[in-house]
Amino acid sequence: MHGEQAYLDMCRHILENGTKKEDRTGTGTLSVFGYQMRFDLQKGFPLLTTKRVPFRLIVSELLWFLKGDTNIRYLLQHNNNIWNEWAFKKWVESPDYTGPDMTDFGRRSQQDEEFGKVYEEQLELFKQRMLEDGEFARVYGELGPVYGKQWRDWQTTRGESIDQIRDVIAQIKRNPDSRRLIVSAWNPEFVADMALPPCHTMFQFYVADGKLSCQLYQRSGDTFLGIPFNIASYALLTHLIAHECGLAVGEFIHTSGDAHIYVNHLEQVQEQLNREPRPLPSLQLNAGKQSVFEFDVEDIQLIGYDPHPTIKAPVAV
């Protein structure tokens, strides 16, 4: 089976079996509960080929998580805009914002061309100020204690800090047969303080036959826009940690809770399903870097990626 087929089968399963549900964004979805995909990382890097997925954004976002960063300024410095809407929402809903009404900007920008132009202007002004004004970025670029904070600086009730990533790497090296190789991003005490509660909530590593595998549990997944990023991001994380630990890569297993397709993505999904998958690319890491914390964007290269063209779709915020 082609490495991408597991994802395409998931899309078909949701289209054929999904239940119509309302959601927090007001968009509406087709949803199924409980679905699992498996990707053999020995057979290629699982970046979709039936549409172009921007790999550099996946790399910079993962490195942002690994730095423990929770402010979008780093992402914007790497021309990564995938978290903009949540920070922008915080800005336009604040008492300091005095510009045009941006209420429900996500849907309105898709439905009203004139409003869409105003929204894009305001978003560009916001991004420019984020890059130029450190104090503004400190206040309005902050997303709260999201992934990076929980991965690298989990706060205990005793006021201590737990670096889950550093700890799990040490455990893999010291006791690879452990069944406790787990990292959690879901911290109930701080969920209300996050711009977006973690969708990819926890992951577990497994070592067998000299190979490192990873299983992700994702409580909620935007199947068309989000899950392709998540697959590639956690496959990349598996490669990076295997590299540091002197292991080969095994499988990446993606387990979904609420797996959904937004109703305004149905045409895009059908277009993608009509395309023929192409050979998967391979991943090349800078052999001169050992620790996952040493890697920069340019140290991670994709070889042989030849996808079909991009398929655009609106983000539900």
In short:
(6R)-5,10-methylene-5,6,7,8-tetrahydrofolate binds at residues 222, 316. With 317 residues, the protein is α+β, with helices and mostly antiparallel strands. It has a domain at 5-68 and 162-303: Thymidylate Synthase, Chain A.
Description of the molecule:
- Pfam families: Thymidylat_synt (PF00303).
- This is Thymidylate synthase.
- (6R)-5,10-methylene-5,6,7,8-tetrahydrofolate binds at residues 222, 316.
- The active site is at 199 (nucleophile), 199.
- Helix 1 crosses helix 11 (266-273).
- With 317 residues, the protein is an alpha+beta fold.
- It has helices at residues 5-17, 55-66, 73-77, 84-92, 105-111, 113-132, 134-140, 147-152, 164-174, 226-245, 266-273; strands spanning 19-21, 29-40, 154-155, 161-162, 182-184, 200-208, 211-222, 248-262, 282-285, 300-303.
- Helix content is 37%, strand content 21%.
- The mean pLDDT is 95.
- The strands form 3 sheets. Strands 1-2-8-7-6-5 form a 6-stranded mixed β-sheet.
- It is built from 11 helices and 10 strands.
- It has a domain at 5-68 and 162-303: Thymidylate Synthase, Chain A.
- The longest helix has 20 residues, at 113-132.
Please give the structural blueprint.
Elements: H1 5-17, E1 19-21, E2 29-40, H2 55-66, H3 73-77, H4 84-92, H5 105-111, H6 113-132, H7 134-140, H8 147-152, E3 154-155, E4 161-162, H9 164-174, E5 182-184, E6 200-208, E7 211-222, H10 226-245, E8 248-262, H11 266-273, E9 282-285, E10 300-303
Helix pairs in contact: 1-11, 2-10, 5-6, 6-7
